[in-house]
Design brief:
single chain; about 550 residues; alpha+beta; FAD/NAD(P)-binding domain; Jelly Rolls; seven-stranded mixed beta sheet; seven-stranded antiparallel beta sheet
Amino acid sequence: MRTLTYTADLCVVGGGLSGLCCAIAAARHGARVVLLQDRPVLGGNASGEIRMWVCGANGENNREGGIIEELMLENYYQNPGLKFPIWDSVLYEKAMAEENLTLLLNTSCLDATMDGDRIVSIKAWQSNAETFHTVHATYFADCSGDSILAPLSGAKHTYGREAKADYGERIPPDVADRKTMGMSCLFQIRETDHPVRFTPPAWAYTYPTDADLPYKSHHKDSNFWWIEVGGEWDCIHDTDRCRDELLKICYGVWDHMKNHGDHGVENWELEWIGFLPGKRESRRYLGKYVVTQNDVEAGGCFADTVAYAGWTMDDHFPAGFYYTEGYPTVHYPAPERWGLPLRCMISENVENLTFAGRNISVTHAALSSSRVMATCAVLGQGLGTAIAQAVKDGCHVSEVEIARLQQTLMDDDCLLPRFDRKVSALSLAADCSAEVVRDGCDRGEDHVWIGGAGESVTYTFDKPTPVREIRLVFDSDFDRPYDNMPCNYPLVQTKYKVPATLIDAYRIEGESESGEKYCIEVGENHQRLVRHKVDWRVKTLRFVPLTTHGCEKFRLFAFEVK
């Protein structure tokens, strides 16, 4: 056996979307980061091992921007057939591309060394390399979902459902309990051009009639999320027990669809079945603030907002699959944008412990809205950016200059409800041929420049002006009607390409007072947020769109100079 030791500004435990976005954000803003993931792939519930599509805020123009949108657009570009192994490699590539980020896959956190109320280091085991890893860090971010650092560090946490009276909520039961939402194993099917028979394993459950699957839609376009157990068990220590039960149900449901009644799947075959359950809820940390149902319904109006949610309060019944009295979840209304504060990601009692994802400091009721993966991703980006700023400024993460942090996040294309992004002074000082590209809002039809062939956007300065950065935000169609990944594979598959509204090729032209010309020319752009570092001294600066990914008009939200 060997032991390797690392020293970092931030150690992130857990490589789901929250942990990945946290690690990338911190690394991009200058922090030295070690990311531990106990699986061979990144993405958590979105990975090829579990295969849940990424859900987030509901409503028009509410899709999450920032790193999660970058990941999705990269996937459409590299993976138009939407194959899960390629999606896994897209996530891997993004982590490996960061110079300040050390990625350790197949590495499970085992222990924590404490000094009073601080974590000094953690110890992890990489089984395939027979190697122990010890990571010393200034901050630790637990993005593991199950909150592995809680029992190892003594951090305050909770499990289960609060009572109504605990926080004055209406959704919880009258008496607190240790019941949670359960976990699911998904399966996916593929259409062929011929009939395919199916023989279930002997140990699978049998469901002879539709009456055996009450309130459970099982058509071929379902992702079978309702195959769910564990909410009345222990969603951490009973994970393998849950998997065994879920596999019996999965095979039984497919046997029912294939062999009991006409479900339109004669030519369909079982393509894949998940052996790793996707979890919805387990331990939740107690932070410097606990977000409640009341906060959700009030819109999350926090001064230290660093992320947002917008999923309904989608509260799955603990009995899961075995709930037979009606639909297995209830959707309580929630605002389409409600803010989440930095304080709910900072431990109440362990000084340098933070967290992002489904384990943040929320009640069970609030969790039912904040737990979906796109929300977890923007939580991760908010936390990682905050920690990088704290490290740079030499202050505790709870004491960072919030206004500056919020502007950094919005500049990185993260929406923060009720907060406005400040446009650079240099952009505002110039004359601009299209005011809308410097109005500070990067989404919505009222904030987009729409141009035709031969049209451009120009800045004119009253004197020669140094420009160091050019920031562009294109239109990636935040209201696109398709998910990031499929739940099945029909014979004729849609090839999901980069959104047609994105500008593909463009030029940026600069000219000095003496007539010296500068030029950047880009082709095959497939991202929404693009920055160009330059060292120009110009009197005029022009953005010239050339082609799109299919849209007739050019659409541009932001063209700014710094």
